[in-house]
Design goal:
The complex is a heterodimer of chains A (459) and B (333). Chain A is globular. In chain A, strand 1 and strand 2 form a beta hairpin. Helix content of chain A is 73%, strand content 1%. Chain B is an all-alpha fold and 333 residues long. Chain B has one domain. Helices cover 76% and strands 0% of the residues of chain B. Chain B has 16 helices and no strands. The longest helix of chain B is centred in the first third of the chain and has 32 residues. Chain B starts with a helix and ends with a helix. Classes of the chains: A mainly alpha (459), B mainly alpha (333). Chains A and B meet through helix 17 and helix 18 of A and helix 1 and helix 2 of B.
């Protein structure tokens, strides 16, 4: 694990010591190399975890998320090149340093063994993200967005600290490996109910759950492109990952405690999908679509069946890649028209056909077209929720329809129809942008061929 | 699962092809409408898949049929919903006429012969399960009967040549669903094959007419093409005759058998009556097309470039013509 963490930390001196015209090249290349190292972790010989040290380990659940994280850093760097091109050199280096710091913390979070270290790193990832959103965001609302983001997450996770400390007192250790063996059923009492709530609320806010999701559209819309990418792709998955880890300890409370959250998620996913249909702001649409997909993951985790865990992990990876790609596409629109309103940049298929092809692929995977991994994740979640209760299929089905509708609505509004008269002076697509989209899409398509890797530990 | 991949795939292809002329707003909304109705049908498909997974532990058709589960109401309802969405049956039908925004060859392929029969095909594949479930059979029968009558009546009032043919497709699909409802999946499959020939040909002929009249699709503005476009006229008349099931053309072999079986089977009399009325209406609207488009005096602008010289067009219509005449005979023997 140090093989990945130390190079990532070393990326920071790399940026500070590089020459002015080499910073992007150096950092992007080296981060790509680091992601190649992390691919080797995917080779999991058994269902037990691979242990590297007392503090770090990786198992079939965290390995795909780790690879996603390391894969995204070069993509984030490529995406940020344009909007930082006019900044002074020191600020560019500062930005890259922030991203690298975030990356290091994320890698450590996904491979943490102890729950307390997981918690500390979980909170620590908030800091670089906050700095990225509030310093390099584009509108004045970014300060408000940062505030919402910080305080929502903190409010949710402080109870988690208390809960973890109390569990440490009770059972003597918070090590993942040991918990599997020490696990005793929690007796049904008021304090245990609060314990359950304390453990879960942090992740519910992070996911986000429908009632607590207000920070997400703000943060996504105001963040610069790399911030949006990493938020949508990874930080939301931190919540899912945490939930998947911690629910192993929380039985049997989950069987009745989960009901309100399940109802909120099921209803919330339809609500947020419907909001997407009426959005005028492109990034806001993608943000709400993230909430909708994550609600599916929450449902899957709370049902706690093997199939649903498989669906949750597959959906997390698939959604990470798809959302990140959609944000990159939205950013390419933003850089040209400097506005996020969808109808200002319509009819793009006539002018930028290759970009239209990427839009099409991204929208198709967003609506979970077979045989992409998005579909596999969604299908598994739908199947398991059908077994939990037959009626949920109606809600799930409605969600699938509305998802298809807004994805294609987004496609049609930006690509098709007559182009506007003021659009004939936009710059054509850069190679960098096309490479970015291709690098997003290729893992997605390749994983459709062999989804075993991302199906998590219940495969 | 593989069926689902293909199922969704044709849905998306339909979206892309209907919206081929993407500069047109109407085309884009029609494409989105197609996806909406298809997706609603897909919910039914997913529900059926979920039920099969949890009650028969498999998505494999052979295994499902061997296990022969009882109480198959829920999954078969799901499959029926899927077929309704994909094949434009009564509840989910508006997308098919709107789909005529696409280019004519697209309509000829997707929306007359191959894609829309995917729904019927699905029901045919599951017929061993449907044989045992009388409720679902009556439901399909009534659904098909309502569809075929409703869309046949709609076809009578349309003025756009492609829309008339679209409604006629919908009506024939209803007929196929009726055939499944009376427990004759093999006949339904035969009708799929034969219908493909003459419907595709009808679409291609209408495409030829539209193109030579400079994108004129309204039949009230056509006329007198009998002498101006002899080859198209011939194929149009033969196609319409085959559609109505004139003896010894293709349509006869499947359509007549369906009507005979429906008459002699112990089935819902009301559905039967609706089917018979709808079948007679096919003759009516086909004649309407012939009357307005071919006979009478020309009602289009005087300076037109009517020509049938394009060899690609003529060759394809020629092949479909031969198919329309002889395919029924060859397939049934």
């Amino acid at each position: 694990m140090l093989k990945i963490i130390i190079p990532t930390i070393m990326l920071m001196p790399l940026t500070w010591l590089s020459k002015k015209n080499m910073i992007w090249i150096n950092t992007t290349t080296y981060s790509l190399l680091i992601s190649l190292i992390s691919l080797s972790l995917l080779n999991q010989p058994s269902n037990n975890s691979l242990n590297f040290s007392l503090m770090f380990f990786s198992d079939p659940l965290s390995a795909p998320l780790l690879v996603l994280t390391t894969w995204l850093l070069p993509l984030m760097l490529m995406a940020s090149q344009h909007h930082l091109s006019k900044e002074p050199l020191i600020r560019k280096k500062l930005y890259i340093t922030m991203l690298t710091m975030l990356q290091t913390l994320l890698i450590m979070t996904f491979t943490a063994t102890e729950l307390i270290s997981f918690y500390i790193l979980f909170e620590a990832t908030l800091v670089p993200t906050l700095i990225i959103i509030t310093r390099w965001g584009n509108q004045t609302e970014r300060l408000n967005a940062g505030l919402y983001f910080l305080f929502y997450t903190l409010m949710g996770s402080l109870p988690l600290l208390v809960a973890l400390i109390s569990i440490q007192n009770l059972t003597g250790s918070l090590n993942f490996l040991l918990i599997q063996y020490w696990n005793q059923a929690l007796p049904d009492s008021w304090s245990n109910i609060f314990l359950w709530l304390a453990c879960m609320m942090a992740f519910m806010v992070k996911m986000p759950l429908y009632g607590l999701h207000l920070w997400l559209p703000k943060a996504h819309v105001e963040a610069p492109i790399a911030g949006s990418m990493v938020l949508a792709a990874i930080l939301l998955k931190l919540g899912g990952y945490g939930m998947l880890r911690i629910t192993t300890m929380l039985n049997p409370q989950t069987s009745f405690m989960a009901y309100p959250f399940l109802m909120l998620s099921l209803w919330g996913m339809i609500m947020t999908s419907s909001i997407c249909l009426r959005q005028t702001d492109l990034k806001s649409l993608i943000a709400y679509s993230s909430v909708s997909h994550m609600a599916l993951v929450i449902v899957a985790v709370l049902i706690q069946t093997p199939w649903s865990y498989m669906g949750a992990t597959a959906l997390m990876i698939a959604h990470g890649l798809t959302s990140s790609m959609l944000f990159c596409l939205a950013n390419s629109n933003y850089e040209r028209t400097h506005s996020r309103t969808m109808i200002l940049a319509r009819g793009l298929q006539t002018l930028l056909p290759l970009m239209a092809a990427w839009w099409l692929l991204a929208s198709l995977t967003n609506l979970a077209l077979p045989p992409s991994i998005n579909l596999i994740g969604e299908l598994f979640v739908v199947m398991s929720s059908f077994s939990w209760s037959n009626i949920t299929i109606i809600l799930m089905g409605t969600n699938i329809t509305i998802t298809a509708l807004y994805s294609l609505y987004m496609l049609i509004t930006t690509q098709r129809g007559k182009y506007t008269h003021h659009i004939n002076s936009i710059k054509p697509s850069f190679t960098r942008e096309n490479a970015l989209m291709a690098l997003h899409m290729t893992p997605l398509l390749l994983l459709s061929l062999n989804p075993k890797i991302i199906l998590g530990f219940t495969y | 699962f593989q069926l689902f991949i293909g199922w969704e795939g044709v849905g998306i292809m339909s979206f892309l092809l209907i919206g081929w002329w993407y500069g047109r707003t109407d085309a884009n909304t029609a494409a989105l409408q197609a996806i909406l109705y298809n997706r609603i049908g897909d919910i039914g498909f997913i529900m059926a898949m979920a039920w099969f997974l949890f009650n028969t532990n498999t998505w494999d058709l052979q295994q499902i049929f061997m296990l022969d589960p009882n109480l198959t109401n829920l999954p078969l309802l799901g499959l029926l919903l899927a077929a309704t969405g994909k094949s434009a049956q009564f509840g989910l039908h508006p997308w098919l006429p709107s789909a005529m925004e696409g280019p004519t060859p697209v309509s000829a392929l997707l929306h007359s012969s191959t894609m829309v029969v995917a729904g019927v095909f699905l029901l045919i594949r599951f017929h061993p399960l449907m044989e045992n479930n009388k409720t679902i059979q009556s439901l399909t029968l009534c659904l098909g009967a309502i569809t075929t009558l409703f869309t046949a009546i709609c076809a009578l009032t349309q003025n756009d040549i492609k829309k008339i043919i679209a409604f006629s497709t919908s009506s024939q699909l209803g007929l196929m669903i009726v055939t499944i409802g009376i427990n004759q999946p093999y006949l339904a499959f035969l009708h799929i094959c034969t219908h493909a020939f003459f419907k595709a040909m009808l679409f291609m002929c209408s495409g030829s007419i539209i193109h030579s009249l400079n994108d004129e699709q309204d039949i009230r503005k056509m006329g007198g093409l009998f002498n101006a476009m002899p080859f198209t006229t011939t194929s149009l008349i033969i196609g319409s005759l085959a559609l109505t099931g004139i003896p010894f053309l293709t349509g006869f072999y499947s359509k007549d058998l369906i009507i005979e079986t429906a008459n002699t089977s112990y089935t819902n009399a009301w559905a039967l009556l609706m089917t018979l009325i709808a079948t007679s209406l096919t003759a009516v609207y086909s004649t309407r097309i012939i009357f307005f488009a071919l006979l009478g005096q020309p009602r289009f602008l005087p300076l037109t470039s009517i020509n049938e010289n394009n060899p690609f067009l003529i060759n394809s219509i020629k092949r479909l013509l031969i198919g329309s005449i002889f395919a029924g005979f060859f397939i049934s023997n």
